[in-house]
């Protein structure tokens, strides 16, 4: 296994799996923030200390027989080109912060890409587990297994009163960030999303775009996550988030039903117009591509399109991002060149699907 393998495989193998409510919930993610007691936090440590932490993790990996999630590959950020780091961000395997602001960082990746352990990001260790559909408790169980393995070899920074200590005070306590990625075109088209988001925020959760904080909700995809990390158990926090997500699922399904009853022909027309754009465009920007892919996915979910797999759309959502386009091109592309290549790639992939 190597960096190239993670770069060349468009979608992680877990993305092709079906999960509960996967027509609306694309993925569930658990992230645990941890720090090593004997080192300064990443906001204060030196480059030498950062290198020592990576060395310790390499030694742990080399000398441990931990194989619950298969082989783990350690990749160093300072050995990657900017384009390579961007591709890993687009696949949600590393954070933008690790890619851009952590020159002495690293990541441990499992072969199926369900597990990502970031090293020297905002905290010394950030354990991430990704599952398809609404599977927060399953992802939490997996993260806890990894956490227990690491804690059996590493002394964490922990306080009896405050819990796990982290660089950012908002993560102190459990260090847990639970999140789900949701496709909500029905709530967008019925214009309900603007009143729903403030209500979710008032309940102690946050709504972000596809790449987390500061990112845009491309293709009607939103990330819902907890804000509170102290005062409750990890399982209770996940169950609270699942309650909010379940309500969103119900509201999204109701919105889709209402659209089908009141605007069926208009919705069907929108779906097939978007499919036509994707099938025939010679130039397409990322935002338009994401919107059209969202429409087509909705068309599949609602039964308008019956000869296409949702997996292709997941693949194209990732493959048409700037990093992947340039990775496949073998080097940097100007924005206009990316738009041309994006359109060609989508046409070719959809043609391959129609010929099956």
From TrEMBL:
Keyword annotations: Allosteric enzyme, ATP-binding, Kinase, Nucleotide-binding, Transferase
PROSITE patterns, per database record: PHOSPHAGEN_KINASE, PHOSPHAGEN_KINASE_C
Reaction catalysis annotation: L-arginyl-[protein] + ATP = N(omega)-phospho-L-arginyl-[protein] + ADP + H(+)
Keyword Kinase included in the entry's annotation: yes
Biological processes annotated in GO: phosphocreatine biosynthetic process
Documented EC number(s): 2.7.14.1
Any single GO CC term annotated in Swiss-Prot or TrEMBL for this entry: extracellular space
Sequence motif RDXXRA motif of the pArg binding pocket involved in allosteric regulation, location on chain: 338-343
Short name of one Pfam family: ATP-gua_Ptrans
Annotated binding of ATP, by residue: 27-31, 92, 126, 177-181, 208-213
Activity regulation, free text: Appears to be allosterically activated by the binding of pArg-containing polypeptides to the pArg-binding pocket localized in the C-terminal domain of McsB.
Enzyme class: transferase
Domain Phosphagen kinase C-terminal: 24-255
GO molecular function annotations of the record: ATP binding; creatine kinase activity; protein arginine kinase activity
InterPro entries linked: Arg_Kinase, ATP-guanido_PTrfase, ATP-guanido_PTrfase_AS, ATP-guanido_PTrfase_cat, Gln_synth/guanido_kin_cat_dom
NCBIfam families xrefs: PRK01059.1-4, PRK01059.1-5
Family that this chain belongs to: Belongs to the ATP:guanido phosphotransferase family.
Known role: Catalyzes the specific phosphorylation of arginine residues in a large number of proteins. Is part of the bacterial stress response system. Protein arginine phosphorylation has a physiologically important role and is involved in the regulation of many critical cellular processes, such as protein homeostasis, motility, competence, and stringent and stress responses, by regulating gene expression and protein activity.
Protein name listed in UniProt: Protein-arginine kinase
Species the sequence originates in: Neobacillus thermocopriae
Gene: mcsB
């Amino acid at each position: 296994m190597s960096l190239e393998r993670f770069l060349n495989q468009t979608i992680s193998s877990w993305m092709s799996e079906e999960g509960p409510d996967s027509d609306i919930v694309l993925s569930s993610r658990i992230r645990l923030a941890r720090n090593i007691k004997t080192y300064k936090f990443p906001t204060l440590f030196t480059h030498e200390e950062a290198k020592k932490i990576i060395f310790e993790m390499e030694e742990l990996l080399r000398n441990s027989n931990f194989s619950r999630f298969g082989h783990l590959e350690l990749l160093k950020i300072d050995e990657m080109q900017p384009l390579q780091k961007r591709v890993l961000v687009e696949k949600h395997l590393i954070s933008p912060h690790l890619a851009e602001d952590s020159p002495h960082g690293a990541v441990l990746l499992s072969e199926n890409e369900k597990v990502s352990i970031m090293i020297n990001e905002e905290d010394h260790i950030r354990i991430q587990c990704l599952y398809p559909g609404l599977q927060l408790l399953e992802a939490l169980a997996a993260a806890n297994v990894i956490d227990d393995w690491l804690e059996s070899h590493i002394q964490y920074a922990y306080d009896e009163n405050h819990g796990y200590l982290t660089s950012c005070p908002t993560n102190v306590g459990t260090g847990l960030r639970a999140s789900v990625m949701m496709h909500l075109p029905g709530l967008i088209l019925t214009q309900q999303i603007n009143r729903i988001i403030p209500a979710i925020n008032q309940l102690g959760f946050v709504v972000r775009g596809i790449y987390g904080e500061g990112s845009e909700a491309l293709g009607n995809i939103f990330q819902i996550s907890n804000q509170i990390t102290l005062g409750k158990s990890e399982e209770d926090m996940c169950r609270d988030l699942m309650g909010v997500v379940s309500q969103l699922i119900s509201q999204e399904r109701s919105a889709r039903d209402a659209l089908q009853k009141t605007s069926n022909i208009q919705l069907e027309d929108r779906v097939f117009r978007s499919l036509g754009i994707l099938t025939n465009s010679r130039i397409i920007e990322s935002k338009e591509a994401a919107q059209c892919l969202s429409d087509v996915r909705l068309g599949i979910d609602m039964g308008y399109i019956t000869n296409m797999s949702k997996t292709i759309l997941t693949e194209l959502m990732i493959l048409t991002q700037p990093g992947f386009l340039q990775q496949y091109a073998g080097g940097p592309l100007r924005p206009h060149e990316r738009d041309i290549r994006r359109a060609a790639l989508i046409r070719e992939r959809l043609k391959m699907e129609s010929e099956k």
